Write the structure tokens for this entry.
Amino acid sequence: MLVEVWLVWCLLFLGHHQLSSTAPTPHEPCPSYDRSSKYRTNKQLSEGRHQLPYQRPVERCRKFQSPVLENTIARLRSKIADPDLFRLFENAYPNTLDTAVLWTGFAAKNGSGLPYSNLTDTTDEDLAFVITGDMYVLPPPESNIPLGTNYAYTRNKVNPPYDRKLTFDCKWELDSLASFLHISSEYHNATGDMAPFTKYQWVETIRVILDAVEAMRTATYTADGHIAPSGYTMTGQTNRATETTSNDGLGNPVKYTGMIRSTFRPSDDATIHQFLIPSNMMFARYLETASAIMEKIQTQATDPAKAQEAENLTQRMRTMAHEIRAGITKHGIIHHPLFGPIFAFEVDGYGSHNLMDDANLPSLLSAALMGYVSPRDHVYLNTRLFALSEENPYWMHGPVLSAIGGPHLGPMKAWPLASIVRIMTSEDGSGEEVREELKALLSTTDGLGLIHEGVNVWNAKDWSRHWFSWANGMFGQMILELENKKPYLLTENYQ
């Protein structure tokens, strides 16, 4: 599953000193947000046609408090004219900090990872545990929160093996590593602060990432026809084809292209062809931006050995990013009979390709959003037209919502997340595309006032996940970008 960059980014950008954890007193238990947000109430309804309820927990029950966030909501109150649109923003934007930050604290001394009882046992390294809304995955050992149970563990065979007491699941998804590079770059660009990259084990982590992905760049066969060693294999006993792989865990064969194999997609679904183009785009893009941090470490290092190591890693990062880009250009651009040259979703290096797009990020639609290409790049524009058309097998359309879906939820389930990305990548000067998507999004909440994971395009009451932090966070980010780039759209009525 994609590391939810926006969620953790809230914690990093707002700063630990600006945030305060809140908890109810023992005599005032808080209701379960998972239960209370599932049902519509008739209290504090917005004044628009959709009459959306206020869905924030009472202040004492919010998991995190941020004056910066509250000030942002207050600022937007006077800028968003439509009452339903503001209510959806008011509910969605703070949803992560309100509900999903289960623990904050500090790393234990000497990296012991043991629960601690007082601050004398800790360092000054901030830690936080943010859930996705459905799984307690990888809580820091210091939190003393038990790891969630993965009931598929005994049915899966993964190599290299992993310790289920330390790791919830082990699906090789390239985007997860790309997200670490992304959040590193975003934090550095926003703050200029180098301390997290030099004081802790960031350099060592980059080396581990590079070694791991290098092992997944290999072809299936050696030059003499043997099976080449693979950095990862996985098979699963399941009734869903998307939960396992072919060829005893190797996946479908590939040739060397310079790209990195990804056994699974951001949606947790297995790839058909292992060179997943959106994930390779994301990894190359943020490998480039993170290399600037490594270069700065090199120039600031006083130890010649550390300076040399950083220089070598900088060069390695940039070379790999260049090779991935070259592989995408050579193997990942396919001529479509209607749209001309477009990016394929997956390729294998032999010439086989999978033409589709998926709502989960990274997607082909999000290529411009992540900065891999210009939003006016002609191949991207062709790809965007394809992804938002019936030529895309996972384009779902109906009276409730027309947006990209994916095999994770299956046919007829469109993802509001894809509509949000469509808005954020729109270059329509008239603003009409954004207006239509905003109206559609307001109609997809089934009166709950939160962004769902997927919605039946013919039945607004048939949805998955009433509480989906990822999409809620992206909705908030989208509104802030509209405020910055197209503020006039926030002054309009979407009833």
About this structure: The radius of gyration is 23 Å. Residues 1-21 have pLDDT under 50 and may be disordered.
